[in-house]
Amino acid sequence: MGLVDLFLVALVPVLKVLLVTGVGLLLALERINILGPIARHHLNLLVFYVFSPALVLSNLSETITLKSLTTLWFMPVNILLTFILGSALAWVLIKITKTPPHLQGIVIGCCSAGNLGNLPLIIVPAVCEEENSPFGDSSVCSTDGEAYASLSMAVGAIYIWSYVFIIMRVYASKNTKHSTTNDSTINIRSSGETSETLPETEALLPSREQSYVDDSYQVELPYAKCEEKVPTFKKITQCVKVFAGQMKLKMLFNPSTIAAIIGFVIGIITPLRKAMIGDSAPLHVVISSVYLMGEALIPSMTLIIGANLLAGLQRTEVGILAIIGIIAVRYVILPLLGIGIVKAAHHFGMVGSSLLYQFILMLQYTLPPAMNVGVISQLFEAGESECSVIMLWTYAVAAFSLTLWSTIFMWLLS
């Protein structure tokens, strides 16, 4: 297949995302106000509690087996590498651009955490449906692609609410220490604006009508505990214990993650699989109904992404060099590293021969920042507007970078 054909295959899904995202942005404008704060609040809840878990459960239960796990084990490792490499590059970027302290956590979050669920769930099935797709039969490709993307979403959510959450909290604690208050705790509350939040925000933050501070969102800062003059190894051990004790289990085990666990159980346990998977299965109607609800995820999530980007149309303190640096990290350096890592993993037998699976592993290195980074910045009330501006520009550039890199990935694999 020629390079031009591959470019067209990669371009069409991205254009679909852009068009639907544009509709979401249009519907969020004050003059139209169909996707205003209240509407987004309820749509966020539906996506977070119903649509997303339904699609994850139905896709994983249908495609995951004991045999497939021999290949899929590398995906969590691959995603962890995207976070670690992104964090290291962000640290270099902070030193080069001299990013202000209150924005350093956001820069690290944007460079390390990619949109590992929503965009792959949109792009991969759309690529499979194209006539010139290099991934074989469209129905098989779509089913497998949605399963891979669903697993990516679940694993990504765990890393974001553990790895990224801890890093951004540490930087927030440093800023708090140097502020006028000497209190060793920070109260985390909802800003009341759902225009900058994704479903995870609405599920984890107090509702718009609540004016009190929920005790479950009072976080004891680890900064003071980790600053004592003790041996290095003991200091690291103390910090790890503090961080582990402060992880929010309800953030890690969100509905999509729980649905992924259930999907794994159904797919792996043979009696359950025979009872629920397949046209002749006695309980097939259950999985079919769950999948029907899950089909609403992609259009709903894309509209929400567009509506949430509206907050980025404002002036903030974020510098142009920081934005350019984040774009360079996410769309130039990480994709190049991803090609080398996936190719090496395939060479040493850690990744199977599935071209679609290798494509998704490479795609995970070139995605725009996860919207949950904005959610975390809201939790700590630090740099919310700057984060919205970063999201706006990175998602605008993503339209071109995703098309280009998808074309390159398919060319390398075909």
TrEMBL record:
Keywords: Auxin signaling pathway, Endoplasmic reticulum, Membrane, Transmembrane, Transmembrane helix, Transport. The keyword Endoplasmic reticulum applies. InterPro entries: Mem_transp_PIN-like, PILS1/3/4/5/7. The chain crosses the membrane at residues 6-29, 41-60, 72-94, 106-127, 147-168, 251-270, 290-311, 318-342, 348-367, 388-413. It is found in: Endoplasmic reticulum membrane. Signal peptide: none annotated. One of its GO terms (biological process) is endoplasmic reticulum to cytosol auxin transport. GO terms for cellular component: endoplasmic reticulum membrane. It is a multi-pass membrane protein. Its main location: endoplasmic reticulum. Pfam families: Mem_trans (PF03547). It comes from the Eukaryota. The keyword Membrane applies. Involved in cellular auxin homeostasis by regulating auxin metabolism. Regulates intracellular auxin accumulation at the endoplasmic reticulum and thus auxin availability for nuclear auxin signaling. Belongs to the auxin efflux carrier (TC 2.A.69.2) family. This is Protein PIN-LIKES 3-like. It comes from Ziziphus jujuba var. spinosa. The lineage of its organism: Eukaryota, Viridiplantae, Streptophyta, Embryophyta, Tracheophyta.
